[in-house]
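Predict the 3D structure for this chain.
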Amino acid sequence: MGAMSPAHWLIVVLVFALFFGAKRLPDAARSLGRSMRIFKTEVQEMHDKPDSDPADSGDPPVRELPSPDNAGRVAEAKPILRDSLRA
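Done. Predicted structure below.
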């Protein structure tokens, strides 16, 4: 199982030409190249950009809500009596 020889690559190209048509292959390759170029520039910008402090960004700071004193407790429900509904 070695590398693909030029004959193998020729067969792969012919199969793609049969499936997609000779006219659509250059457009597909061009759009793939553009996508790869955009991806590379975005990855490079992520590596070049230093980690910023959230206080430096223009976004407002995130505040935590204060916890209520009775957090986790549920008020006890009173049963409804049928006789009290009729009256």
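The mean pLDDT is 76.
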